[in-house]
Amino acid sequence: MGRGTGRLRATLPVLAMLLAASSHPSPAAAYDPGRVTLIEENDAFASRDDRHYTQGLRLSYLSGAVSPGGFWDSPFDWLAGPLPVFAGNADSRKRKIEWIILGQSLFTPARLEPANPDPRDRPYAGWLYTGASLLQDQGGHSLERLELLLGVVGPSALGKQTQNDFHQIIEVGQSHGWGHQLQDEPGLVLSYERDWRFELPLAFGVAVDAVPELGASLGNVLTYGEAGGILRIGQNLGADYGPTHIRPSQSGGGWFDADRMDSPIGWYAFVGAQGRAVGRNIFLDGNSWQQSRSVDKKPLVGDLVWGAALFWSDRLRVDFTVTDRSKEFYGQKFPDRFGMITLSIAFW
C-alpha cells in the first residue's frame, strides 16, 4: 500500500508539469502539427429527454509524434522507471500528448421545473476542467493512456449559465433548481487505460477488428474500474482505436495516426460495451467534505454504444455515437440515452 501510494505521489508532479507547460508546442509540430478535436455529447441528439447527464463538451489538441529522446519524451521515460507503463519496443512505438484545453459536463434531475428539486432524484451539478494525457501506441496493436484532469465542481463550473442561456436561445424552458446544485469543490481524476487491437482483413480494403479495453480512474470526482471493448468494420481501422468519449464512457483514447492509413478515405461502423465498478461518483454521492444533495448510487453501471466514423486522410474527421447507459442510482426510473458528435481538424 505504501509503495503504491508513493508511486502515485511521484506521478502527479510530472502530469502537473505537463499541464503547466501546455502553452508550448511539441517539438514535432514543424512536421506533424497535430489536430484539434471538439466533442459535444447531448441527450437531445438521441432522445427527447433532458435529464441526468444532459450535456458534455470537450475541446482538445492532439500533438504530432513526440521526438524520441526529446524534452516531451522524458515524461514517458520517467514514469516507465518506477511504474509498469510505457514500456515496449522503442523501434515500433509512437508517443503523443493530448491537451484537454477545456471540458464541461452538466447533470440535472429528470424534472427541471421545480425550484426545489426532488431530493430522491439526481442533484444538479456542473464539472469544468482541463487536463493532459500521455499516449503510447505500440505498432498499431496496443495503446496506453495516462490522463490527469483538474477542475472544479459546483457553481464555479458555470453549469447554470451554460444550460439556461442555451435554453433561452432555443426558446426552451429554464431549469429552476440550480440553486440546489453541488457546492464548489476542486476536482481531480487520474486515469490509466490500455487498449489492444486485433484485426482480420476481409476484401477490397475492408477489415474487421476487436478492441478490448481495461482501465481505472482515481479521484474525488470519479473513482472506478472499467472493462469493455468495441467491434468495428470498415477501412483504415489502424488509424485509431475507436471514437473518443467524455469520461466516464467507452474511450478510444484520443489517438489518431494518419501514417497507418492505406488510402485517403477511412470509415467504420462500430458497436461496443463497457462495464464500470464505481467507487465514487461525486455527481451522485455529493460533495466530499461539504453538505450537499446526493442519491444512493449503483455500484455497477454499463454502457452500450454504437455509431460510425468517417475521416479524410489526416485533415478532417466526423464521428457520431449513441450511448445507452444503465440506471446509475437507486430510484432512477429509466436508463439514459445520449448522442455524441465529434469533429477533428488537422493543422495545415
Name its key features:
348 residues; mainly beta; Lipocalin; 12-stranded antiparallel β-barrel; 13 strands; 45% strand; disordered N terminus
Structural overview:
With 348 residues, the protein is mainly beta. It has a single domain, classed as Outer membrane protein (Lipocalin), CATH 2.40.128. It contains four helices and 13 strands. A hairpin with a 4-residue loop joins strand 7 and strand 8. The chain starts with a helix and ends with a strand.
> Which consecutive residue ranges, at least 5 long each, have pLDDT under 50?
1-30
- CATH architecture annotation: Beta Barrel
The geometry reads as globular
- Biggest beta sheet attributes: 12 strands, antiparallel, barrel
**CATH class category:** Mainly Beta
Number of helices, where a helix is a run of at least 4 consecutive DSSP H or I residues: 4
Element pattern in H and E: HEEHEEEHEEEEEHEEE
The CATH topology is given as Lipocalin
Mean model confidence by pLDDT: 88
Number of domains: 1
What's the structural blueprint in terms of helices and strands?
Blueprint (H helix, E strand, L loop, with lengths): L1 H19 L14 E8 L9 E11 L11 H7 L12 E16 L16 E14 L3 E12 L5 H11 L15 E12 L1 E4 L4 E13 L3 E14 L29 E17 H4 L14 E13 L3 E10 L10 E11 L2
Antiparallel strand pairs: 1-2, 1-13, 2-3, 3-4, 4-5, 5-6, 6-8, 7-8, 8-9, 9-10, 10-11, 11-12, 12-13
